[in-house]
Amino acid sequence: MAKLQALQDVANRLRINSIKATQASKSGHPTSCASMAEIMSVLFFDTMRYSLKEPRHPASDRLKYDVVGYSIFNVNTFLLLGKGHSAPILYAAWAEAGLFPVSDLLNLRKIDSDLEGHPTPRLNFVDVATGSLGQGLSVAAGMAVIGKYFDKTDFRTYCLIGDGESAEGSIWEAMAFASHYKLDNLCAIFDINRLGQSEPTSLQHNLDIYEARAKAFGFETIVVDGHDVAALVEAFAKASSTKGRPTAILAKTYKGKGFPDIEDKDNWHGKPLGDKADYVIKHLEGQLKNLSAAIQPFNPVAPEISLKVSLNEPPSYKLGDKIATRQAYGTSLVKLGNTNPRVLAFDGDTKNSTFSETYKKAFPDRYIECFIAEQNLVGVGIGAGCRGRAIPFVSTFAAFFSRAFDQLRMGAISQANIKCVGSHCGVSIGEDGPSQMALEDLAMFRTIPGCNVFYPSDAVSMERATELAAQRKGIDFIRTSRPATPVIYANDTVFEIGKSKVVHNDKVLLIGAGITLHEALKAADQLADQGVNCRVLDPFTIKPIDAAGILENAKACNGKIVVVEDHYPEGGLGEAVAGAISNSTGITMKHLAVREIPRSGPPADLIEKYGIGSNSIISAVKSFA
Amino acid sequence: MAKLQALQDVANRLRINSIKATQASKSGHPTSCASMAEIMSVLFFDTMRYSLKEPRHPASDRLKYDVVGYSIFNVNTFLLLGKGHSAPILYAAWAEAGLFPVSDLLNLRKIDSDLEGHPTPRLNFVDVATGSLGQGLSVAAGMAVIGKYFDKTDFRTYCLIGDGESAEGSIWEAMAFASHYKLDNLCAIFDINRLGQSEPTSLQHNLDIYEARAKAFGFETIVVDGHDVAALVEAFAKASSTKGRPTAILAKTYKGKGFPDIEDKDNWHGKPLGDKADYVIKHLEGQLKNLSAAIQPFNPVAPEISLKVSLNEPPSYKLGDKIATRQAYGTSLVKLGNTNPRVLAFDGDTKNSTFSETYKKAFPDRYIECFIAEQNLVGVGIGAGCRGRAIPFVSTFAAFFSRAFDQLRMGAISQANIKCVGSHCGVSIGEDGPSQMALEDLAMFRTIPGCNVFYPSDAVSMERATELAAQRKGIDFIRTSRPATPVIYANDTVFEIGKSKVVHNDKVLLIGAGITLHEALKAADQLADQGVNCRVLDPFTIKPIDAAGILENAKACNGKIVVVEDHYPEGGLGEAVAGAISNSTGITMKHLAVREIPRSGPPADLIEKYGIGSNSIISAVKSFA
């Protein structure tokens, strides 16, 4: 059949172009591309529907590509390439489809080319970056949730997964999630090419085990020869017609397939073919009948939505009333939900602690329970936020976001839009002990490029933090506190990202946030009784830090600062302030933080024991000459 | 049978004492304890062998306890409680065994008691802390590897896993690892009590699915009524006699079992029984025949080993020769292995990039491939390091340690001994692009309490960093660089943790590490030609940072510092220096770091593009007034 021959020709042209591109860049992974050439050919020229004019249309299918690390999302197919290092064949497929000239492929990995070593959304056909393995399927599942339950379009999501990559636990978190939510618009393709980076994978070509695992995790399974285009056409058709569960296509392939003397051989991971390239290209060219394949027509239809959002009514608290910021989070999320139905909440079975449960009670259809699997929780949130289809709020204990640091790191490269809300920070949570206390969360989120780090200290500023985060595109972190703390701001107070507020006046400058802002206020009151006046500053956001405000207020306070935080000394509020003042003279700072691993106990006792309470602040102020 | 009745009585006494302890602390998780009472009774008084005199003997069985979050290691049983929040029943079991008086249980969660909310090694019967879910099984597998392949004793390792917890992908990473290495001395017990924290688990009581998953991941499976002591006795006996594969006991249980009106009911997670306590205790007491059970005798036998270690020969490089620090890592590890056979290397299929392959080639039996599953990689390393049985070196790309941040965070609470070596840091890796570049690793490891952060800048200091890390107990991170850099130290140079070195003299103080130290040296040379002399400082360790050395040298250089790092600005070398100088006057600092998400390109081009190369350093020096 001419069509099948055309698909086979495309596969071999993709191989040839992957070799040429990696020869030009003198680095890259041509053998990882070769094992998936037929899969890419069939996906791009038979299975997926897409339009070159609107590569990111919300109704287009999605392909996530992930072979020993790819991930791409696409056009009317959300294609995610989990094994991102196979980027050259992704680029070759788009060139073959006509999105850009084939000659551009020779700019692979050049400093002024967007055809980077691993795909990023700097390219208009890539929705999320990949290259760190095992993250694609969660993102694809988040996209599939939007398509099935919110957009209700018939687009499909494809995610390519490498066999080495499938050892990542995050894959199995995503598998369990996808079957629980019956994501029949999701298809995972396992490129089982037997060889990892440094040795064969643990399961090699044992397809039976892969199939048993995928079945046990609730997937329809199809075992297929991954180099047989006819079998692949049939497999993808079957996946599309399967209802009520996602499908896993388990493709037996060979690394370096079609490269004589290289196919299925060890020690060829991540290496251009060098002086073997010409021979291999000639060999592949000899198999071409030079037929072309056309892309599948596509007429995008998706509901128009807006992400405009605000609190439907302002905060309404009484000064001095005690309310935990985590509780105000739930209240504020409902207020946002009242103005935009695309505000979605995700949690990892902690909703009755983080107060995302308040949102579930108000809008049960807009809450997605992700169970105890934080990598997938964040990945699903990133997927849901793609292409501007939702404002995802993701909550769990702040400490457990550390489980998803790599997803957040990649989220920044992916230009993701996700709002992370972490409760139970610091020693002020009390009796549950150190395993539940976030004491490094500020440092972690501060390293994420472009991430705003909010640390509101009362219910009024908490509601505004939620609103400010919802209104911008990007990654945000809001740190909420477990204990109830007094309302200190009038309901009409205006808050801005990167702008601090003076909440108490003069002399030495005290800077705290959350529970320690209240300790600073207590200390300031007691010091005032003793005739020592302190100015107290609420930074509101830790990143960006209000450097100008800090410098100005520090100068007005004789250059003396005491910073106090419920966090380890590294990378949090104290070092943010130290960095802000480091290029100025005449300003010195004392830094109070949790300097050992804490233990269980009542919150107030722990705060004093670890030197971040009002007594410690008073001592620090008095010790200033 | 009297023995079975005694085990049932113990189970109910454990329930009663769990209720009493959480009544006294007014917080805690009695219902999570109740579901596992029979399991704990049978483990402690029939299955496990241990001696109260030597709770941490290396030949003792190990129990890791992990029910919706426990983890304990034990006595001659390594018991790990994954579901750490069920700590009260662990403490109650030890009291029942006679390790301490039952009355101590009423001190649960008090600030001066080691009976914390979640177990930590502050208790002599706990080897690793738990409380963050899904980590226990990896640690247990690491212990089992030591027992089976290195100590070659017949101890067994038990890990209790909550059903909610089993949604964590790290569980499935550990399952795959345990079956790959045929760890028949490992038994995982799934406490399937149907209810999570905030709602039923996704699989509820669907035991068939649990069994299919465990089987597919290579475990022998036994489905059992988790409240039937006779069935449990038989199941554990069968597990002990199963060869060639680990066993999963899938126990159907009920949360709050035996508590009338509470058993199997939602909304009872993490709550003491309050005014229902007296009634429930009376009900349970009514079932007691008041029989006691004895612990199983144990005669510890394990090979005596020493962890004394050093390089068997000093570094032997020529000044100016170009060697990548990652390559010197492999060389130094072999030198350590020559003096101690318990130096073990673990990697996640990147051994040909990190150079742990050098060690595998020298000592194939001391290398354990962990495939692409970094959470499990770190967990296994922590387990291997328990009880002083090995010096585990764990390597992967530095960026991918972010996958295991939560394991490292818990590792600190566990007082773990593990050496993490991360390669491919910063933009200086070049063409692979941002997904592969570690630009936040320093910040992450700096937040780990007690962790030393080494950042050697040449092969000589690299070898000494490896040695210094091996010679101390605790968590260490060594950051290695991909490019080859010149040897700058004589082979007999002595290095110390927290001590920097001046490598070039005078005026403005330049501080760099790794690749940026070499850029600083280049800048200093060019500036000297222009008559501007700079002093260049190599900090060697980023944590602890040599605050005294920095202050002293800064003062000698007119208080002017330029810090340059191949890392994001937050939480790395720059903020460490900013923190060190923040309480001094007359010192100002300019900070060069990577301030946007980088892209693919040649290393040298990227270093200049992102403002951390010699030209940027020269500009910064000249801009000082």
What descriptors fit this protein?
6-stranded parallel beta sheet, 19 strands, 7-stranded mixed beta sheet, Rossmann fold, 625 residues, elongated, 16% strand, 3 domains, alpha/beta, homodimer
Task: Tell me what the structure shows.
- Two copies of one chain form a homodimer.
- Chain A has about 625 residues and is an alpha/beta fold.
- Chain A has three domains: about 1-285, Thiamin diphosphate (ThDP)-binding fold, Pyr/PP domains (Rossmann fold, 3-Layer(aba) Sandwich); about 320-485, Rossmann fold (3-Layer(aba) Sandwich), CATH 3.40.50; about 500-620, Rossmann fold.
- Chain A has 21 helices and 19 strands.
- Chain A has helices at about 1-25, 30-35, 35-45, 85-95, 135-150, 170-180, 205-215, 230-240, 275-285, 325-335, 350-355, 355-360, 375-385, 405-415, 440-445, 460-470, 515-530, 545-555, 575-580, 605-610, 615-625; strands at about 60-65, 75-80, 155-160, 185-190, 220-225, 245-250, 320-325, 345, 365-370, 390-395, 420-425, 450-455, 475-480, 485, 500-510, 535-540, 540-545, 560-565, 590.
- In chain A, strands 9-8-10-11-13-12-17 form a seven-stranded mixed beta sheet, sandwiched between helices.
- In chain A, α19 links the parallel β18 (about 560-565) and β19 (about 590).
- The longest helix of chain A has 24 residues, at about 1-25.
- Chain A is elongated and about 90 Å long.
- Residues about 65-80 of chain A have low confidence and may be disordered.
Structure summarized in a few sentences:
Two copies of one chain form a homodimer. Chain A is an alpha/beta fold and 625 residues long.
